[in-house]
Amino acid sequence: MQKSLNIDPGKCTGCLQCEMACSYEHTGTFNPSRSYIKVFTFHHEGRFAPYTCTQCDEAWCMRACPVDAISVDLTTGAKVISDDKCVGCKVCTIACPFGTVNYSQATGKVVKCDLCGGDPQCAAACPTDAITYVDADWTGYDRMLASAAKSLPSAEATA
Amino acid sequence: MQHVIVGAGPAGVVAAETLRKFDPEAGITIIGDEPEPPYSRMAIPYYLIDNIEESGSYLRDPEKHFKAQNIEVVQQRVDKIDAKAKKLSIADGSSREYDKLLIATGSHPISPPIPGLDLPQVHSCWTLEDARNIIKLARSGSNVVLIGAGFIGCIILEALVKRGMHLAVVEMGNRMVPRMLDEKAGGLLETWCKNQGIDVHTSCSVDGIEAAADDLVEVSLSDDSKLSAALVITATGVKANMDLVEGNDINTDQGILVNRRMQTSNPDIYAAGDVAQGVDFSTGNFEVQAIQPTATDHGRIAALNMVGKDDEHHGTLNMNILDTVGLVSCSFGLWMGVDGGDSAELYNADEFQYINLQFDGDHLVGASSVGKTQHVGVLRGLIESKIHLGEWKNRLMQDPTAIMEAYVACTQELSYS
């Protein structure tokens, strides 16, 4: 059974430990600005919402890549960037309608969530279970995917 | 079932892969006339600065991928289509029959009407062969004149600067990238380039190019300046490669006209990518977009319909992202706005930061930005999903940078009871 990140904004306290853990895992530094998961703050609602790539089936990033630098990790289902192949053209960053593939000026490549090879550090670091790594058919994930699909007409056309 | 694809660029390759995914038994052939394995023009700027080898521009691993997918790749030129007989004439004298044909022949650079373009120092920058020719002449310390500051001109700027050349850019429009950025954004790019020592001439054209001593040329501009150069690059736009359909009663305009299934006026012939004039998401008009994401979307939609899945496309969103000597700019959809629509903007010229949002009612319909690299894709999501922003429109009017917050708030349930 493939697993997915499940995010429950209602449980997020905005502590940003996920961003710390993610940036440390991927860059070796505690630098939230280089984290691949991002916690958004909603002052009006008094809420926080962690957000990152859903590893969507459409894989807009992967399809748009002109040099085959994005591939599927067959174990985790994550869409993974090959630094060796990425030329830094950024086409995937506009192709991804969720805004979760980003260009890193530090490396000259694009970066995105890779599920840490199956042991996502954001989930491990989250003290309130706002981010969990669960079986992919868990209802919360379905709801997240459904809202994403609903928002993009062509995503459902070929699903 | 025999599918034949003419053209080995991103549209053709994605189409072939999609055909294979949905029709494991079909014969699938890609015929391309360039001598290299299928490659991406998008990678050429990175080849020019020796960031990658030529093989780094290949769309797929040429040794393994196509064999594994049972896709035949043929390096040949297709001379003619006989749509009645459903047959192609190949340059080597052979012919091929098809059941469904996809034309993905791309586009070619247009040559502006300037005397002297045939001099050996003048090149376009479109193919790997062009890139090799440019590298031969792009010696450190020498002068280069770039004609055209459009998308292609601007993505190769950096490569020329990094090769140590002294660069002058000549653009007929009143700003850089006039078809992708507004005056403020284009102005930021111009200032940025001038700060890097690039000589930028806007609202200016080239009158002529003449041979001069020492293998150099002299470029005469409409503002009366004369520039000496070892290399001149033309990047003044591209035009669809439509010669192939001539004489077949297939409707064309700026490109080959296709419906929402990427089908031409001949039901067994499809077109995709730079050669195709398909539906634009924002306007509903038929337009040639000539951009990478549209090429791959076209390729996929064409293939789905070629295997009999009735898949109508909602139209491709015109969008671009550009890195000009380190300054990243992008634009989406109706970035110039619509009549009666509201707009929001944040402009900080000192920091080279700009974001402009264009609304129609409470939908986002267009956007452009400079100096922003994080979460720009969500602008596509907001536009293409036609999300009703509701109160978030007012928040974006106050703070146009809050695009991710708007998207997350409008698509996820934030409040749990």
Characterize the overall form of chain B. Answer: globular
Label the structural class of chain B.
alpha/beta
- Rounded mean pLDDT of chain B is 95
State the end-to-end CA separation of chain A. Answer: 20 Å
Cα-based radius of gyration of chain B, to the nearest Å? 23 Å
Tell me which CATH architecture of the largest domain in chain B applies here.
3-Layer(bba) Sandwich
- Major sheet of chain A: size, sense and barrel closure? 2 strands, antiparallel
- Low-confidence runs of chain B: none
The chain pair with the largest interface is: A-B, 47 and 58 residues
Category from helices, strands and their pairing of chain A: alpha+beta
Strand content of chain B: 25-35%
Helix and strand pattern of chain A: EHEEHEEHEEHEHH
Percent in helix of chain B: 10-25%
> What is the residue-mean pLDDT of chain A, rounded to a whole number?
88
Would you kindly provide a written description of the structure presented here, covering whatever features stand out?
The complex is a heterodimer of chains A (159) and B (417). Chain A is an alpha+beta fold and 159 residues long. Chain A is 28% helix and 20% strand. Chain A is built from six helices and eight strands; from the N terminus they run βαββαββαββαβαα. Mean pLDDT of chain A is 88; it is low at 153-159. Chain B folds into three domains: 2-108 and 238-306, FAD/NAD(P)-binding domain; 122-234, 3-Layer(bba) Sandwich (FAD/NAD(P)-binding domain); 326-411, FAD/NAD-linked reductase, C-terminal dimerisation domain (Enolase-like, domain 1, 2-Layer Sandwich), CATH 3.30.390. In chain B, 23% of the residues lie in helices and 28% in strands. Chain B is built from ten helices and 26 strands. A five-stranded parallel β-sheet of chain B has the order 3-2-1-7-19, with helices on one face. In chain B, helix 5 links the parallel strand 10 (143-147) and strand 11. In chain B, helix 1 runs parallel beside helix 7 (292-306) and helix 9 (391-398) packs antiparallel against helix 10. The mean pLDDT of chain B is 95. The chains are: A alpha+beta (159), B alpha/beta (417). Chains A and B meet through strand 2, strand 3, helix 3, strand 6 and helix 5 of A and helix 7, strand 22, strand 23, helix 8 and helix 10 of B.
